[in-house]
Amino acid sequence: MSRIACIGAGTVGRAWGVVFARAGHDVMLYDALPTEVNDRALPLARQTIELLARAGMLEEPVEVVFARLHPAASIAEAVTGAAYVQESVREDLATKRQVFAEIAAHAPADAILASSTSALPGSEFLGGLLDPGRALVAHPVNPPSLIPLVELCGTQWTRPETIDAARQLLTTAGMRPIVLRKEIEGFILNRLQFTLVAEALHLVGEGYCTPEDIDAVLTDGLALRWASIGPFEVAHLNAPDGLQGFVDRLGPMMKRLGALAQTDYDWTPAQVATAHAELAKRIPIEQIAERQAWRDRRILALRKLKQDDADGQA
Ligand SMILES: NC(=O)c1ccc[n+]([C@@H]2O[C@H](COP(=O)([O-])OP(=O)(O)OC[C@H]3O[C@@H](n4cnc5c(N)ncnc54)[C@H](O)[C@@H]3O)[C@@H](O)[C@H]2O)c1
Question: Does residue 8 fall inside a structural domain?
Answer without folding.
Answer: yes
